[in-house]
Write a structure and sequence with these properties.
8-stranded antiparallel beta sheet, 11 strands, 3-stranded antiparallel beta sheet, alpha+beta, about 30% strand, 7 helices, single chain
Length: about 260
């Protein structure tokens, strides 16, 4: 998200809540470990305490390196899960934030694979997860496995700035209740309600097209764009709700009040 010409509010999610939201599994993740090529993660999610669960191919270099290290030392592998939060609406600058989850990587034991696969399937209903946690009838190796990252530190950088969290602070946070549906809500607003979004701009913002940029239980981000040949730079605006909302019914009530106020 752009830093220049951005208004902010103190009313919003904490750094721990924002980190847990990015780690939830919607945003793209890349696994980085010493001596191993960067490994995009096909799917990742977190358990109830925020521990990342990572779906990877069993024959990938990251798994080979982990197993070699385990046979030598048995202490797991230091690794970082890098997460990029990209807005679902097509914009020139779509990256809204980044998080780095540092810790030690380990392989989920066979007896826990089924539970981990179900947790991943909640966010990512992928066919690769169907065989995990079941007996291999032919006795052959599994094509996929699940790794877990035991968190030692979390860093986040977004529109609120930068923050570093210890494992306890991170675990105490909770993902935003709209993390799994935010994409659909923003794309709907962008395709069907751009005129109403313009009416939400305060008077000090130069007039122009408005696109939805982000949503959480405390408010939403809007981006005022500038059609050529206008010289004004895009302007990111935080629109805080009167009070936090926790479900879709509450969110619909907030939208009705906002749009009613914006209608001439």
């Amino acid at each position: 998200m752009r830093r220049a010409e951005t208004t902010k509010t103190v009313d919003g999610p904490t750094a721990a809540e924002r980190a847990r939201t990015l780690a939830y599994g919607i945003a793209d993740g890349v696994l980085v470990a010493p001596g191993v090529p960067y490994a995009p993660v096909p799917a990742h999610a977190t358990d109830r305490d925020g521990r990342p669960l990572l779906l990877v191919r069993s024959e990938s270099p990251i798994v080979s390196g982990l197993r070699n290290r385990a046979s030598d030392a048995g202490t797991g592998m230091p690794a970082t899960l890098r997460i990029s939060d990209v807005a679902p609406v097509a914009l020139a600058d779509r990256v809204r934030g980044r998080a780095w989850l540092h810790g030690r990587l380990g392989e989920i034991p066979d007896g826990e694979l089924r539970a981990a696969a179900l947790r991943l399937a909640h966010a990512h209903p992928r066919p690769e997860l169907l065989d995990l946690g079941t007996d291999q009838g032919d006795g052959g190796p599994r094509e996929w496995t699940i790794l877990a990252l035991e968190i030692s530190q979390v860093e986040i950088e977004d529109a609120w700035g930068s923050a570093a969290l210890d494992p306890e602070e991170y675990a105490a946070g909770a993902p935003d209740p709209f993390v799994a549906v935010e994409s659909g809500i923003l794309t709907h607003l962008d395709s069907c309600h751009r005129a109403e979004l313009v009416g939400l701009l305060p008077e000090f913002v130069p007039p122009g097209p408005v696109r939805p940029l982000g949503l959480d239980r405390y408010g939403m981000w809007l981006r005022r764009t500038a059609p050529p040949p206008e010289a004004h730079a895009p302007f990111d605006l935080r629109l805080a709700f009167a009070e936090p909302v926790s479900d879709l019914h509450g969110l619909r009530c907030v939208y009705r009040r906002l749009f009613a106020r914006a209608t001439p």
